[in-house]
């Protein structure tokens, strides 16, 4: 079974290497952005060329967005993969984040092209270091579940891993709905310049939603639709 791996943090980001380790028992192809593309949403490139840089057999850096990477991977690199996996993103992609996230856009594009996908993100508490070891272990557990499921055409999965710390209970996998509450919007204004200062950790959350589940220390899994 061939799996395409991509992300929006760039091909050299630690998260995609952790994801590669999590699926080491599968045949994989990496087709990820050459540069950091976080927050680009579902942007695609149609007004210029998109350069592809082969790094090795089965690994390609692409000078485009995550959605571009999925398009090129599915049309020219590996037309018949079983899944597209995107991540592991450094930072959560919860609730309405999915409209901003390039990580999520990569698997939304896959679903649009008829291939199932899973986006995976690692929520971080404050300015603490990411726990990539725990993220790998949680990703293996989640993918064992999701990759064995029958795929409903036009859907894709969005997974948010909690920031696990030593001594905490083992996170549960909880299937839930995406929170529809808005992100915090606040700016510091200096003359005509606006500097975003929204506090992600203080966002409103609906009880039982993906934001609530992840912030409470569990693995939030939502099924989204094109």
Task: Describe the protein.
- With 226 residues, this protein is an alpha/beta fold.
- The chain is built from five helices and eleven strands; from the N terminus they run βαβββαβαβαββββαβ.
- The protein has a nine-stranded mixed beta sheet, with helices on both faces.
- Strand 6 (117-122), helix 4 (132-146) and strand 7 form a beta-alpha-beta unit.
- Helix 1 (14-22) crosses helix 4 (132-146) and helix 2 (66-77) runs parallel beside helix 3 (102-112).
- The longest helix has 15 residues, at 132-146.
- The radius of gyration is 17 Å and the shape is globular.
Please give a handful of descriptors for the protein shown.
nine-stranded mixed beta sheet, 226 residues, alpha/beta, two-stranded antiparallel ribbon, 5 helices, 11 strands
Q: What would a concise description of this structure say?
A:
The protein has helices at 14-22, 66-77, 102-112, 132-146, 210-215; strands at 2-6, 27-33, 52-56, 59-62, 83-90, 117-122, 155-161, 173-175, 187-190, 193-196, 219-225.
| Averaged pLDDT | 95
**CATH class label:** Alpha Beta
Task: Give the terminus-to-terminus CA distance.
Answer: 24 Å
Helix share of residues?
Answer: 10-25%
The total count of strands amounts to: 11
* CATH homologous superfamily annotation: Survival protein SurE-like phosphatase/nucleotidase
SSE pattern, N- to C-terminal: EHEEEHEHEHEEEEHE
What is the 3D shape? globular
The largest sheet, given as strand count, sense and whether it forms a barrel, is: 9 strands, mixed
Q: What's the number of helices?
A: 5
């Amino acid at each position: 079974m061939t799996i395409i791996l991509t992300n929006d943090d760039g091909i050299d980001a630690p998260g995609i290497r952790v994801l590669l380790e999590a699926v080491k028992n599968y045949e994989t192809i990496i087709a990820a952005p050459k540069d950091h593309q976080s927050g680009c949403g579902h942007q695609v490139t149609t007004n210029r060329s998109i350069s592809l840089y082969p790094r090795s057999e089965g690994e390609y850096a692409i000078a485009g967005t995550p959605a571009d990477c999925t398009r090129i991977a599915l049309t020219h690199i590996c037309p018949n993969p079983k899944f597209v996996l995107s991540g592991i993103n450094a930072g959560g992609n919860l609730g309405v984040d999915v409209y901003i996230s390039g990580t999520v856009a990569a698997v939304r594009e896959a679903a649009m092209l008829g291939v199932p996908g899973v986006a995976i993100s690692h929520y971080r508490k404050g300015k603490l270091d990411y726990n990539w070891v725990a993220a790998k272990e949680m990703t293996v557990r989640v993918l064992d579940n999701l990759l064995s499921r029958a795929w409903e055409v036009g859907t894709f999965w969005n997974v948010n891993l909690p920031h696990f710390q030593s001594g905490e209970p083992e996170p549960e996998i909880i299937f839930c709905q995406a929170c529809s509450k808005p992100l915090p919007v606040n700016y510091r204004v200096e003359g005509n310049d606006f500097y975003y200062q929204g506090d992600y950790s203080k966002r409103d959350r609906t009880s039982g939603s993906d934001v609530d589940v992840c912030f409470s220390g569990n693995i939030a899994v939502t099924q989204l639709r094109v």
